[in-house]
Amino acid sequence: MSLTSLAVTFWAILAVVAILRRIREVIRLKNSIKGIPVRVVLLSYRRTIANILYIPYICLGINYPWIHKFDDYERNGCTAHVIVSVTPCHATLYVADTEAIKEISTYRPKFPKRTETYRSMGLFGQNIVVSEGEEWKRQRKIAAPAFSEKNNKLVCTATVNIINELFQNIWGDKQEIIVEHGAHLTIPIALMVLSVAGFGNPMTWEADTTPPPGHKLTFAQCLHSVTNDVILNLTVPTWALGLTERLRTLRTANKELKEFILAVVEERRTKQKHDDRWDLLTNLIDASEADDNEYAKLSNSELVGNIFVYLVAGHETTAHGLCYTLGLLALHAEEQEKLHDHIKSVLGDRDPVYEDLNSLPRVLACFYESIRLFQPAIVIPRVAAQDTTFHVSSTKEDDDTTTAVTVPKGSDILAHSVGLHYNPKIWPEPEQFKPERFLGAWNRDAFFSFSSGPRACIGRKFGETEAVTVLAMLISRYKVEIKPEPQFANESFNERYNRIFKSNSMVTLT
């Protein structure tokens, strides 16, 4: 036998041994999971390629938790299911059970955040999203006071001014406004609100079309590139960011967005405290500087990191939530009419003020129902710090029994908001747009669009204030309809619904 043949045989034996060892590991892991059937796939969702592609039995793709919604739970008969991957060999538990998700969200030491999942959110510096343990507590302590009632009032006032400028200077006296994509309206609104209430720097509808001196992109262009190409930031090495025009734009956007934010941070830090400023950045700096303990203060890098998170998470989630809401109202004319009448009964022909918002429950209900159907974050990842047993409920009607599901230490635990929100035992006819669900009594533990527990969305009130104000002003003045197009003249309601709301999971569901 030649040396080449011996080498091939040797490496073949090693490969077989490695494969057999991995098969044994997978079987052992699969047998350690008790209570429910286990599905095996080749590639974990942690592998980049597994998020890009969907190949049965190989990898599930990034949209798997969105596409399948509650299907796998119904198939298993309980509100949890497990996927074991071969490479790397580990278990992922998907949970759509109210009590189990409440436990996962509440007990942080037992279910710590898998911070590496949020690497893209740490692009510009350490921040509240990518932190865990004592570091998270420090950042949360400083950040929480920044989201104050005075900041919420600023959000409302800024939103009213921005929408009025849209009405007066952009739309004018036009009887019909055509918007090719709802996000083309809602993303600029959210960005402008965040610029005022987040930075204290007003933007206008006609401004920011030319990059400032020394920059190739505008602030809005930078933000759009960074948020739209978050997967590229995660997967493409720095040296490769010059290979294509899109990657070069992303590289420039990364650099210039950080420069934009840092310049505002440094400018604001040199100024004395202003009692009449209530934007998030000023509040963050004031809260940080108020502590005599140097360790407790936020560095410039941490301020930049946190402001970046508020920009990305804040403007993305609200903008897309509003876009879905407008689309749903356009498809459900009867709900839009109810909403219009409700707004008029409260406001008449005047603009809303912050004190009005609690008197507009149907507006908030429409927004809640939209982000129940189209959740900003389709899963919230945690990790089991120890061997863990959950008691999850049955999916069968009139069956109150529970199933004990045990997963080993180190397993990924995904609180699956889509599965929770499409559970028909909690939300009857879950596919239907029914804002009435949120009028009167409803199960707050089963609504996970803002997460829950200690790590629930810190900017929830900010987003709700903006959303209610925008919807109240738009729907009081305009009727929203789907633009008629000849090629879609004969489509059914379901066909139109699926066409309009075809979604993908990126930073948030879009």
Automatic annotation (TrEMBL):
Entry's SUPFAM superfamilies?
Answer: Cytochrome P450
Q: Which GO terms describe its molecular function?
A: heme binding; iron ion binding; monooxygenase activity; oxidoreductase activity, acting on paired donors, with incorporation or reduction of molecular oxygen
- Pfam families (alphabetical): p450
Q: Which domain of life is it from?
A: Eukaryota
Supply the alphabetized keyword list: Heme, Iron, Metal-binding, Monooxygenase, Oxidoreductase
Residue positions binding heme: C457
Organism this protein belongs to:
Sistotremastrum suecicum HHB10207 ss-3
What Gene3D superfamilies does its record include? Cytochrome P450 (1.10.630.10)
Presence of the UniProt keyword Zinc in the record: no
Return the similarity comment: Belongs to the cytochrome P450 family.
- PROSITE patterns noted in UniProt: CYTOCHROME_P450
Q: Which cofactor does it need?
A: heme
Q: What is this protein called?
A: Cytochrome P450
